[in-house]
Structures are given as structure tokens and as C-alpha cells.
Amino acid sequence: MGTVSGLGEAAIIASINRAFAPNASSAGSVNSAVQGPDEARGRGAVLVGNGDDAAVLAANARLVLTMDTSVEGQDFMQAWPSGVETSPRLLGFKCAAQNLSDINAMGGRARFLLMSLSLSKNVAASWPSEFAAGMRDACEVLGAEGVELLGGDVSAAEAISITITAVGELDSKARPIVRNAARPGDQLYIAGRLPGTSGTALNRLLDSRTQQEPSLEHMPRQHAQPDEDELARALEAHFMPTPPLELGPALAAAGHRIAGIDVSDGLVRDATRIAEASGVDMVLDEAAIERMAAQLGQAWALQSAEARHNVLYGGEEFNLLFTVPAGTELPQLPGVSIVRIGEVTQLNQAGRQSGIYLEGQRLDENLGFDHYSTDKP
């Protein structure tokens, strides 16, 4: 099969471009032609695309910028303790999706991606193109088909490292979704798939009867050894998130005061980020949390304690967590689940750190994901 070291940098870049944009007019370039004045009048038009030292855009819009890095051993594994492997196509899907989710969480629509890819020299020659195809899959599946790959860089490294920058646009009359806009009396909602799904899937991928992973030591294993079908399901659940990309722009366009964040590090940890930025507390709805825990437990054969823990602290669903004033009419979008899970309240004590409460108890936000925690995949 060969490795990337046998391809060389130019061939790697060309394979990425072909995989992401198979219908591009010239091999190795997503958009290498310089557009004329009439073509450039559109919002965010590409004047010079992939193929030059840098891209040139006609930025006639409010731009939204974000960047995420995924590092082998820190954010993902190629080979998991459970015995399954992460395909580059699945990894590409997730890396693109988490950037699209950040743009959505601000109320914007993604338009462009840039990618920096560092690969070890023994990686298969097909790896870069399969990864890029996974990125394209994410854009198509999640409703962001128009997103273009503008360029990036490749390099060699001991372990795989991927950094993607996404550029989006915010409609001219839209109100950005920010973390510091929550006020007492606002209602707390979560939109997307069932919280805890990705965290549960990650636990299954880490499950090994010969070695207990540190990140799981606090949680007793109650379920049976995952079989091949269950592990395939876990890979898909963890690496193919479905952020509700139509919801962010719809909320922003409505013009309401909205606080929001995408849930990457766990419901409690990310809710705490909104609360701290806004100077408020939040009280979770016990019935809503229990319903979600029951659904998760049934779907993945979990005991109630583990299901509840995963709903509260599992991350990387890339759901949209947001607050709106009570009585706000929410957008009704096909296939998008929006669930009320709590309410914003005043700080219990002036000058005290914000917190998230359930059943009268403050929840520990430190149980969510942190890149510098000693407990990581």
C-alpha cells in the first residue's frame, strides 16, 4: 500500500484536494482561478482559492472564525483498548463537524475551512485522502455542502496532529450568540442528540478486560464486554456527531438575547462556562435529566448511575446549549430535538463563583473533559 513518506508533500496535498472536492475543475486545486469583479460582489466570495500561498476573500460580511486541534493520544486513538481502530474517514468527519459546530454556536453559517495536518511517516498513503473525504462527508451530511477547503499545510510528526480553522458568516441583521447573555429567569435548552451518547461510546471504545483505563476508574463497569457490532456502533456514535447547524443561524436571526455554547466538554462544564460569563447560577430540571438518563440507559444498557453521570458529564455531542428569555418562541426545524433542561437563577451569594445545581446540590464541573486533566483517552 505504501506510506505518506513515499508520496511527498505535493502528492499529499493534491490527494487531499481531490478527495474534498472531487468535481473541482483542476486537480490539486479547489478553486485556483481568480474571479472577476462581478463574481466577487457576493458575500464572502473567493478571489483566490486553494493553490496559492494564501487565499484571498472579498469579505463583504460579518465573519465568524474558529479553530480546533485534535492530537493523537490526547483527543483520539488510532487503535483503541477495545480492539477497534479509528478510520481516517471517521476522524475527518469528527474534525470537520466540531468546527462547523463552533460556527453554529455563534449563530453563523460555515463557509470555508483551512487545515494543518501533521502525520507520522509510517501513516498509510491513502490516509490523507480518506481523512479529507470524511471532512467532505461531514459537510454533506450536516447540511453544509457549500463549504470550501481553502488550503492549509502538511508536515511530518511523531504523532498525528490536526488543526482546522473554520470561517463562517453571520447574517447582517442577526444577533450573535454569546456566552455572557444569560439572565435570571431565562430558560435553558439543549438541542441535538441525546446527551451522554458520545461519552458512553467513548467508554465502550476504552473498555478493555486486560487494562482498566484511568478515565474510567471512578465509574464501575456494569455492562457486558462490547461485541463487534456494539463497537462499530460506538465508533459511529463518537466520531459522527450531528450538531444542529440550522438552529444557530435561526436563533441568531430572531434577534433575541441568547446565550449559547456547543457542548464539547460535557453538559455541566459547558453550562458552567455560560453561567460564569453571565454572572448567574443555573438549576437543572430533575425530571428532564432523569428522562434523558433513562433513554441513554435503555439505548446502551447502562445502570442508572452511569447513565445519569454520562448525561451530565459526557461530552463531544456538539449539541447546542442555550438560554432564552422565558416565553420566547423557538424555531421548529425538521429533525432537530430541542429540550428544556433548566432555568437561569441569580447567584446564591454575591461575589461567589457561578454554579450548576441539581436537586439542591452544586454539581462538580471539573468532572467534564479538560485537555490538561490527568484523566483522558
UniProtKB/TrEMBL annotation:
Specify which residues bind Mg(2+) 3 according to the UniProt entry for this protein.
53, 102, 262
Residue numbers binding Mg(2+) 1: 68, 153
**Annotated Pfam families:** AIRS (PF00586), AIRS_C (PF02769)
Reaction(s) catalysed by this chain, per the record, are: thiamine phosphate + ATP = thiamine diphosphate + ADP
Q: What is its EC number?
A: 2.7.4.16
Q: What residues does Mg(2+) 2 bind to?
A: 68, 102
One molecular function GO term is: thiamine-phosphate kinase activity
Quick one: which pathway? Cofactor biosynthesis; thiamine diphosphate biosynthesis; thiamine diphosphate from thiamine phosphate: step 1/1
**PurM-like C-terminal domain sequence ranges:** 183-345
- Taking every annotated instance into account, which residue ranges of this chain make up the domain PurM-like N-terminal? 51-169
Instruction: Please give the superkingdom of this protein's source.
Output: Bacteria
Q: Which InterPro entries match?
A: PurM-like_C_dom, PurM-like_C_sf, PurM-like_N, PurM-like_N_sf, ThiL-like
UniProt keyword terms in alphabetical order: ATP-binding, Kinase, Magnesium, Metal-binding, Nucleotide-binding, Thiamine biosynthesis, Transferase
Give binding positions for Mg(2+) 4.
Answer: 53, 66, 102
- Which residues bind Mg(2+) 5 per the record? 265
Sites binding ATP sit at: 152-153, 179, 264
Q: What class of enzyme is it?
A: transferase
Q: Where does substrate bind?
A: 75, 316, 369
Describe the task this protein carries out.
Catalyzes the ATP-dependent phosphorylation of thiamine-monophosphate (TMP) to form thiamine-pyrophosphate (TPP), the active form of vitamin B1.
Miscellaneous notes for this chain? Reaction mechanism of ThiL seems to utilize a direct, inline transfer of the gamma-phosphate of ATP to TMP rather than a phosphorylated enzyme intermediate.
What family does the database annotate? Belongs to the thiamine-monophosphate kinase family.
Q: Name the chain's protein.
A: Thiamine-monophosphate kinase
The organism's taxonomy opens as: Bacteria, Bacillati, Actinomycetota, Actinomycetes, Micrococcales
